[in-house]
Structures are given as structure tokens and as C-alpha cells.
Amino acid sequence: APAQLQNKTVTMSWSTSGAATSDAGQQISFNNINTRSVYVSTAGRPFLRMQVRSTKKSGAMRGGDFGPGERGSRGSVRFEGNRLIGTEVFSSGARQFIATFDSAFSSCTLNVTDAKSGGDAIKRRGPDGAMYRIGAVTTGSPACSIQNGNAFAGQ
Q: What is the tens place of the pLDDT at every residue in 48-67?
């Protein structure tokens, strides 16, 4: 990780909305706020926190924390020059989020892409555990910020 980001937390957020159909044929719409926080330790190791919150009445939230080298299908992050690149692999399809930092690593911009795998629809598990085919998804309101210290401390 770039030395300028050590002992700092990068917080990225964006909205996703769309429609999906479960394997059982149930059709749903979704509107979520996605947050990814990456704490870069003083040793330069990234720690990832993933959260998804529904904007519907329930406000249901789900997520997880991942240390350096922990991946799985949930997600991972890596640094390439002045960019922090995150990847989340779904049952079919994937998401990539890229935070690009200014030359002083004091601000960042965010780009998020959800992509299909070949001609297949995006498929992923919903908060109810069912598998859903995502018919359409819109990503918006990307935001990126940097703060000093470990935002995970005490949580």
C-alpha cells in the first residue's frame, strides 16, 4: 500500500437499485446503499469492511470484515499505484470498485462497475439466502473519502 495511506481509512459508498427474480420465481425490487471501508495498517496491510443497507422500511443491513489475504467470494482489495481496486465475485458476474487518489493521497474519486459473466445474468444470494438473477442494476452516487486512523477501532 502507498505509504501516504498508512494508518488511514478509505471509505467508499454508492447506491444500487434494480429488479431481481429468485430461483423460485419471486420478483423483487431492491434499493441499497453499499459501503466499503478499507483501513490501511501502519505496516501497509489493507483490512476491508463491507456493508449493504436496504433503503426500504426494514433498513436491513448485512456485511463482513476481511483481513489481508482473506478473500472468498465476498471480496478483496489491492493497490496499484494511486488506485485501490476492489473485486467482489458473485455466483455469476462480479463487481469492481476503483478508488483513484490525487497525487498527495488526500482525496479520491470512485468508479463502480457491476458486470455480467458472458451472456449470463448476474446471480447472487439475497439477504434471505435465496439465489437471485439480477435483471437490471443501476449504480449511482459514488463517493470516496479518506480519514486519519482506524475507523474500525472500538467497533
A: 998 888 887 565 555 555 45
